[in-house]
Amino acid sequence: MHRRLIIIGSGPAGYTAAIYAARANLKPLVLAGAQSGGQLMITTDVDNYPGFPEGIQGPDLMEKFRKQAERFGAEILDEDVSTVDFKQRPFTVVVSGRERYTADSIIITTGATARWLGLESELKLRGHGVSACATCDGFFFRGRDVIVVGGGDSAMEEALFLSKFASHVTVVHRRDTFRASKIMQKKLIDNPKISSVFDSVVTNVIGAETVEAAELENVKTGEKKVIKTDGVFIAIGHDPATGIFQGKLELNAAGYIKVHDGTRTSVHGVFAAGDVVDYRYRQAITAAGMGCQASIDAERYLEGEAPEVMNALKVS
Ligand code: NAP
To answer: If 95 and its partner were Cys, which of 13, 18, 99, 253 is the partner (CB 3.0–4.6 Å)?
Structure first.
């Protein structure tokens, strides 16, 4: 039950780390989670992953990642990790509350999940006009009207990006002021293709096959109105999957794992990559790139970095 390297989590970061580690002969064990593959498993068309000029379905892309890792000898278990111990070496990882594995090094790639409003209609039309990623889906809304829900930096960023394609973007926010930085708010206000509706929430997404309209409710007056729209982008934040690492690794205020010098966490020998670290780019290709970095960092750590490098990298 001892491994040189355990990768916790799957998705583009985890599988890429596994491909590189397996090819470096580290025989990694990937604890992929009961629902392996990450956010792309619930995505339809992926048109921005290089190497697939015709596009590819999210689950098909993840299947290819996984097969490629297995081809080089990565062992993959679709199990959830329940607890970890990074105080003792070797590190301990308990799987599904029963099996204990130990490892000399760990890579964490547990990802993050987009927050949704929790409406039945939102779930029904997800991938058919409802999205949580403008970078992924904005292109499909050329010349259309879209709504962005949220008042933080992500909502501003999504709205500004969408304004390059859409004919009009309406930002719907539940309070009377945005939470976003002033500079982002100014960009939004200065953009003639964007307007804002304050003190309002989306209470229903309307459409049979695709989004046709959205019902908004003013939270102060209770007044309801329906506005025509072709797309609804939810930008109300993400939740990094770091529950089991709380108190064991340094996290930022939003719960993302802090890294330094590449993919190193606050515990020497534990690395992190992908959306569990990165709240800025959140793309499959950036997660994959970071998974590669984590694998190379772990390999160098396992080979025994020079003492002066180890000292320079030590987290106080
Ligand atoms: P955020 O700052 O937490 O903002 C989430 C927004 O969604 C808030 O305005 C919140 O409303 C709203 N919201 C939350 N739950 C909602 C619900 N159920 N219904 C309606 N609205 C809801 O999240 P974020 O914008 O994703 O940003 C996360 C972090 O990344 C922040 O620190 C941000 O600064 C950073 N970020 C930076 C950049 C950049 O620098 N370019 C870009 C993106 C993100 P309330 O305001 O009422 O709470």
So the answer is: 99
Q: Residue 116 is encoded by which pair of tokens? A: 């949704």
Distance, CA 179 to ligand 1 centroid (Å)? 7
pLDDT tens digits, one per residue of 289-311: 999 999 999 999 999 865 555 55
Going by CA atoms, what residue is nearest to atom 37 of ligand 1? 153
Stated pTM of the model? 0.79
Helix, strand, coil percentages (3-state) for the chain, rounded to 5, are 30, 30, 40
Go through 179-214 and write b for each residue having 16 or more CB atoms within 10 A of its CB, e for each that does not: ebeeebbebbeeeeebebbbbbbbebbbbeeebebb
List, chain by chain if needed, residues with CB within 6 Å of any ligand 1 atom.
Answer: 117, 149-155, 157, 174-175, 179, 201, 236-238, 254, 279
